[in-house]
């Protein structure tokens, strides 16, 4: 099978992990600090705070901005559920907005959903595509809101030459399928010293020093093993992203004349790093999306739907009374299909994928 994602753990990474294990220093320590410093420099911010996951990064970021009960946070519904769940975890209310053609949160719908209770906007740079950060920054400034970027899928993505995660408080995930991984893990990026200080307390049981607890906190620490994997992966991120971009360009050209298939777009001033290469399979296509998935599977190609059920349609959110109508989100969820274009995919693999989609006989 050609998998939808394939993390790379080569001899250098294995050796670095073995060295950490042999050292006996495996909890948060020097490697985590080094990883934080390197990641902050890469994103172009003053501070990075490593966490146990992307979800814990989002939760910690919200709490670090003192977002909680009575507050509203505007989020897209077309995302992984952690985006909205982290808001609930903080005690606040997620307010769902629709999306645009770029799969990112719709600017006009953000404006329509702002109330006196709105405390923050949490755009998601979905599939590695940066949101329209200029428009979002304008809204944030006009309404004096907090900006928390869900950049879980957008390591190295840029808007107007500036990396995502540097416009507000950024949150990244290093889950195994991401463009770079620490297997599990996350990080918060910020230029705000107070946010950094509070986040470091929250991730470690609220302890400024051992057994002294000044705020309510959690065990959201990153391990030394995760950090040492991340250090090697970070050095290779740009190279791997460039391969993804080239693979995406090739697959788009191969699918350009396929009726009923809408290929992902790149936009001016945005660097899309293609965490996922996501097409839309419309009713004009020769068969159903489900049939295409099966055709690909039988020919050894893995494909997945990210995400078949929007968050606002999930049972937990219906029970909370947050079910609503988001027509563009709901339509896109019925059509999207992600195809493998990661750094291990070869030209012949992409040609094979295109030929299957075109309905060519093998």
What does this structure look like?
This protein is α/β, with parallel strands linked by helices. The protein has two domains: 11-234, 3-Layer(aba) Sandwich (Aspartate Aminotransferase, domain 2); 237-358, Aspartate Aminotransferase, domain 1, CATH 3.90.1150.10. The protein has twelve helices and 13 strands. α3 packs across α4. The longest helix has 31 residues, at 224-254. It is globular and about 65 Å long.
Explain briefly what this protein structure is.
This protein is an alpha/beta fold and 362 residues long. The protein has helices at 11-23, 30-43, 54-64, 82-89, 107-113, 133-143, 193-202, 224-254, 289-298, 315-319, 327-333, 347-358; strands spanning 47-51, 72-76, 93-97, 118-121, 146-150, 158-159, 162-163, 169-173, 186-190, 261-262, 270-271, 277-281, 336-339. The protein has 2 domains: 11-234, Type I PLP-dependent aspartate aminotransferase-like (Major domain) (Aspartate Aminotransferase, domain 2); 237-358, Aspartate Aminotransferase, domain 1, CATH 3.90.1150.10.
Low-confidence stretches: none
Sheet with the most strands: spatial strand order:
1-9-8-5-4-2-3
Helicity level: 25-40%
| Series of secondary-structure elements, N-terminal to C-terminal | HHEHEHEHEHEEEEEHHEEEHHHEH
Report the end-to-end length measured between terminal Cα atoms: 16 Å
CATH superfamily of the largest domain: Type I PLP-dependent aspartate aminotransferase-like (Major domain)
Shape: globular
The CATH architecture of the largest domain is 3-Layer(aba) Sandwich
Biggest sheet layout: 7 strands, mixed
How many whole angstroms does the radius of gyration measure? Answer: 21 Å
Residue-averaged pLDDT: 97
Number of structural units classed as domains? 2
Strand content: 5-15%
**CATH fold-level label of the largest domain:** Aspartate Aminotransferase, domain 2
Q: Please give the CATH class of the largest domain.
A: Alpha Beta
The total beta strand count reads: 13
Structure class? alpha/beta
* Number of alpha- plus pi-helical segments: 12
